[in-house]
Structure formats: structure tokens, C-alpha cells
From TrEMBL:
Sequence ranges assigned to domain Protein kinase in this UniProt record: 45-306
Superkingdom assignment: Eukaryota
Location relative to the cell: Membrane
InterPro entries per UniProt: Kinase-like_dom_sf, LRR_Rcpt-Like_S/T_Kinase, Prot_kinase_dom, Ser-Thr/Tyr_kinase_cat_dom
Molecular function GO labels: ATP binding; protein kinase activity
Name recorded for this polypeptide: LRR receptor-like kinase family protein
Record's keyword terms, sorted: Kinase, Receptor, Transferase
Amino acid sequence: MVVSQMHKLINFRQIRKERKEISALLERLTSTIWLEELSAATDSFAIDNAIGVGKMGMMYQGNLPNGQLLAVKRLLNSQLFKRQFLSEATILCKYRHKNIVPLFGFCIEGNDRLLAYPYMSNGRLSKWLHPLKSEVVRLKWPQRANIALGIARGLSWLHDLHTVHFNICSQSILLDENFEPKISNFGEAKFMNPNIEDDLGIMFKVNDGKTKKDVYDFGSVLFELITGETYNELTRSCTRTNICGDPSNFYNAIDKSLTGEGFENEVCALLKIACECVKPLPDQRPTMLEVYNNISNVKKGRHGYSDDFDALRGSSEIVSSNSTNEIIEL
């Protein structure tokens, strides 16, 4: 009883200390874009310009006088999401990569906390994988494979810089006008054992093994690109253990729009890679660099799966994609 109370007291003090440090770091940040500019760009955050809502706040479409289109995230509760705002503003100001969503600017003014990004015209990946009944446009396989490669490239680059995303899913992937994927939603991201002297590196430190959480989440997105469902959705009703050990278990779940187009062997190869990513033990999973190289080799035709699709089809069982849940874009 006494030990439990001591642990609670220590945790409370650690949380309070972290909150003070986060507040101090926020005070050191200087806005890179003014609230007045973002208010004008969004018509005073008019509801007609709202394009989404998430746990952190509202997202608005904005238009600067020079014609630049923006997506502006306005936090609903600046006190509750201090850490997430600090993490996203710091990481996106620090890093630039073709598969990481660029940060146009951020604003800290009074109680307002805002993040502004270039507007991504094709929206979230989840919208394309789960279209409404009235939407008949679907992603072709070459686009899906390129999206998988881009996400893997971005994550591999982040891990090389000792950063873990911790929230990879189809809703955190944005698509530009060329369907190039951009990893977004860095509110939960952390640094891995960084050799960084500043307070931010110390506060958000996490051990190296946590990169395999991103690998698992990427595998789930890869399943979604191939079947339309995440790995957890595919296996939720299955009682068999180690289902990821045999890719043939997922043949019946492959999106029917992907068959008969001449890409069957490539689909099969990426299905095998997805199975490797969701292995139950983190040490069994590949690194994101290995995943990126494997997908790159598949796209270049250098893989050993050329005759596997017929075998996979012949031994398929268990899992099929028949979800009827409607997914609404946030």
C-alpha cells in the first residue's frame, strides 16, 4: 500500500515537472506566422472553411493573398495539448523530406495555438481506401505501391534521425496533387536515445526498440492498401494463431479491383512484406530501411515472388474482406 502510494507520488511529480518544462519550452518559441494572417486566410475561421476535426482541434482551409492554399489546425484546448503542439512544431520545423508534411508556420498568441501546412489537394489516404458509395474513383495498384514506397521512405528517414512517429495510420498520411504521400500528425512523436543536449531531446526520449511500433503500424497500412482493411480488422474475427505467418491466409481479402490488371505478383510480394511487419514480437520485424529496400526491389522487378500468386490463390482460406462499416474522413 505504502509502495503504491510512493509510486503515485513520484509519477505525479514527474508529470508536474514535465508540464513545467513544456510550458517553459513553449515560451521560448517565437511564432512564424501571425494569428491575424491565419484569421484573414480562413475568413475568421468560418465554419464553411472547416475541412476536418480531430482530437486536437479543428482544421480549416485557408487562402493567403499570394494564392498559397493552407490547411490550418487550431487547437481546441491549448492547455491539454501543449506537448503535442510542441512536438509537432519542433519536429516539423527541424526536418524537411519529400514524404514528410511540410510545416508552413505556427502561431502562439494568447491562448491560441495554431499550425499551418500547405494544403494537400488529395486529402487523407483513408478517404481513397474507404470511399463513400457515391465515390467511384479508386486508387490503381501502381499508385498504391508508390504510396507504400513513399511512406516507407519517410519512416526510414525519420528512424535514421532517431525519431519515432507512434501514430502511423491511413488517416495520418496525406496525398499531394501527384499522390505523393506525406506523413503527418506528429503530436505523439518522440526521439530515440538522442545525443541531444537540449531539454526537448531529454524530455521526449524513448528506447530504440520502439521503432518497431512504427514498423507494425506501417504493415497495417500496407494491408489496408492491399485489402481495404487494417491488419487488426482482418484478424479480429479469426481464432487461429500466428495468422500473419502465411500470406495465403489473406488472398480472399485482396481488393478485387487489384486483380486481373497484371500486377498480381507485385501485390503478392507486398503482401508478404506486410506479414513480416506485423510479426507478434518486435525483434522478428524488419527495420523500416529493410522494408523500404524490399519494396523498392519489388517495384524494380527484383524479387523472388514471380510464381507465388497462383500458389497463394490455391491455398487461400480464413480471411475475407466483407466489412460494411462506413468510414468518415475527419
